[in-house]
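Researcher: Next entry in the queue.
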Amino acid sequence: MRCVCFVYSVLAAISFVVAPAANAASAQDQSIQAACFAPQALKAVVGERQPQRGIHTFDKMPAADGDLAPFSPVPPALRGAIRRVDLPKGEKLIALTFDLCEQYGEVSGYDGDIFDYLRAEKIHATLFAGGKWMRSHAARTEQLLSDPLFELANHSEAHRNLRLLDGAAVQADIIGPQRAYEAARKRLTEHQCTAPLSAAATASLPPRLTLFRFPYGACNAATLNAVNDAGLLAIQWDLSSGDPDPNFSAEVIAKELIRRAKPGSIIVAHGNGRGWNTAAALPLAIPKLKALGYQFVTVSELLARGTPVIADGCYDTRPGDTDRYDFPISLTAHAKSATGAVKGTQHASLKVVPAIKARRLARAARLANKSKAAAPHVAN
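Model: Structure for this entry, 380 residues:
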């Protein structure tokens, strides 16, 4: 792991890191939400949290509608997987992040109780949303986009293991959420509810996503480069809530967050109905963390206040622990989607294999991709 020197000055000079942060929006952004959404419309809805399987309505990525917002590749000093941020002495900031992912053949949930609590307590958070999730939750996406407490970020198109995909499929998974976000922003800014607002109000909404989180926390050098070349900072975490495990009670999750949090931590949790007991854990953990002097900021705010700690690769708690997501079925049992990209299997159906076998499969996958990359490319 490496700690980037002089990053504060680099960040100050790169607008795509700090300036587009949704949480840093002015009061004008709040006017957009107030104009477009009644308070009751923001509230949790019974049953909305539950994922639904067997739905393919949103599997197809829509055709491109114009060019994406301009961007610059990530500079060398910030390339790699950002795990946390070293802060100046005395600063106690934490970035809460929630993944909003969705795979093919399903519509995952929206855990409204989480966002109701964050809004009630005025807690800033970064939301890593998949392109497919944003399409299947269009109204919720616009609500979150219009909320100055929250920052939206890229969590790939449909939560596939990117290091098992070829170059074209990787690009599609990176671009999908960018297009979904920019389409949501366009709808919101062109909606009748924003007509009475000033041009500055709508212009203050970030034009594009600037942060990316790898599905499963799994990447390799090629996919890290692809993400950074697309102008996206790769954001991992140094503290997991453990909420995908139903055996973790709200009390256990809260206790671990309080015990393990430290200044500059990036915490990963889930807001798509796949985080067990998350909504109940937050009211237990957040007041105690506040009492310990912590403040909650978005990832972009955190980056602006200190020096990111960057790893050369992706992992959960230690290097190599995401190799278990490299399975042979992910390489051989794919179906073509309507976009021509390769579909992955459902995460819930993947079987855990012994660690040694997983590492061998990972090596085989990398060799297969390397061989494929070396072959002559034939345009479609």
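Model: The chain is about 35% helix and 15% strand.
Researcher: Noted, moving on.
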